[in-house]
Design brief:
Radius of gyration: 14 Å
Bound molecules: ligand LZKTLF4L, cobalt (II) ion
Number of domains: 1
Order of helices and strands: EHEEEHEHEEE
Number of strands: 8
Number of helices: 3
Helix content: 10-25%
Largest sheet: 8 strands, mixed
Length: 133
């Protein structure tokens, strides 16, 4: 079951500049900074009420974020939903014909197991499923 809009992922070219901007915009400091080696991304998290903002910068040419920013401007990169059972939701979405971008859940940032749904399956939006671990 999808239980919450967990975070909006924003792709940024300059993580320090974006972090300073969002610290001023939101009026608060980030609660976490985390490198996710499997995705070659550095992330910065802000908690805003029940939702989060995840700033993401690529750390290598093969990072999905680096590739994205080579073609598109900074902005909303993905929307992440919290699910109570990521494997069950992956099986359900597959049975409904959604294209998933990973066979198995993988370790994401912020103590989550994650998987991604191809934007082509989700009306042009990259969707991330997150389950707390
Ligand atoms: C996991 C750590 C952290 C967390 O929260 O825990 C993260 O969120 S990490 C986030 C970064 N990682 C990922 O995004 C992994 C999943 N993404 C991918 O596998 C690729 O980025 C993919 C498949 C979405 C796109 O791959 P690629 O860039 O090689 O393909 P194209 O550029 O040819 O794009 C194909 C098609 O999709 C459109 N597209 C690409 N990215 C996005 C996007 N973020 N939102 C919406 N649409 C997107 C692109 O425009 C192409 O469409 P077309 O009509 O053919 O132009
Ligand atoms: Co994310």
């Amino acid at each position: 079951m999808f239980t919450n809009l967990e975070h909006l992922g924003l792709a940024v070219n300059d993580l320090e500049a974006a972090t300073a901007l969002y610290t001023t915009l939101l009026g608060q400091e980030p609660y976490k900074r985390e490198h996710v080696a499997s995705e070659s991304v550095d992330t910065v998290f802000f908690q805003v009420g029940g939702s989060k903002i995840e700033l993401l910068a690529g750390t290598s040419p093969d990072s999905a974020i680096t590739k994205y920013l080579a073609k598109k401007p900074e902005g909303i990169h993905h929307v992440a939903f919290e699910v109570d059972d990521i494997r069950a939701e992956m099986a359900r979405l597959r049975s409904e014909g959604f294209i998933l971008l990973n066979e198995e859940p993988k370790r994401g940032a912020d103590n989550k197991l994650v998987c991604f749904v191809h934007p082509k399956s989700a009306a042009g939006v990259l969707v991330e499923l997150c389950q707390s671990v």
